[in-house]
């Protein structure tokens, strides 16, 4: 059952990544870089889910810490961008808390799997 849930999560994440890849032709650099980071982390998650060693574990350790740092910084960059566009929607502590909780819920399993794969 657990393996099935991992496959479903990896499929949803892969589908989302492909959707962003198709629609990000005219995006600015941070969004394209985030897409590249997402693709690499998805490959690591795929290796974890299928129990295949794709690259050396040292590579995945570096990817884990680098991608985690990037996603945290990028989430708050997006929050600041939304605050500039719609100040009443994402301001103050409530906006920060919402951004942190949604990031943990959506990306927590990814980083758990990537951590398990790397270590």
UniProtKB/TrEMBL annotation:
Top-rank taxon, per record: Bacteria
Transmembrane segments: 6-23, 35-52, 58-78, 90-112
Keywords: Membrane, Transmembrane, Transmembrane helix
Protein name: Uncharacterized protein
Native source species: Planococcus shenhongbingii
Organism ancestry: Bacteria, Bacillati, Bacillota, Bacilli, Bacillales
